[in-house]
Specification:
There is one protein chain. The chain has 160 residues and is mainly alpha-helical. It has a single domain, classed as hpI Integrase, Chain A, CATH 1.10.443.10. Helices cover 56% and strands 8% of the residues. Strands 1-2-3 form a 3-stranded antiparallel β-sheet. Helix 1 runs antiparallel to helix 3, helix 5 packs across helix 7 and helix 6 crosses helix 7. The radius of gyration is 17 Å and the shape is globular.
Amino acid sequence: MLELAYGAGLRVSEWIGIEVKDLLLEDHVVRVFGKGSKERLVPIGRTAIGAVGLYLRELRPRLEKGEGKGKLFLNARGRSLSRMGAWQILRKYVALSGIVKHVSPHTLRHSFATHLLEGGADLRAVQEMLGHADISTTQIYTHVDREYLRSVHKQFHPRG
């Protein structure tokens, strides 16, 4: 679940709302319904596909008790995962990994966008993947990228 959330840059409401039928694993995409029920197809990589595939084969069938209503992610009672449930799972794995910084579901989304831009992705492509209606919302992430570039320059340039 966390791998898909990060791998596709999803809002928490989007990842708990995904239905099994929204996974188009052969095409390496997930169908997401964002703000205003706007639909978008977001590419997902091998790691997310592998994690979701394992979940679908191994864990989800044990959780499904007929109350999941087609939702991909289920809680221990077999019902759709809630926002609070998603937060609790994230909190658990953040603690297990020894991370001391505050991490929220939005941190995964923010990291997705930042990593794409740091890797050289086109701002418009990132906008599309995040489901932002306005490019100015996506440009917030370029600020982080500029800060990173400044710190690299300061650290490694002789006149930094």
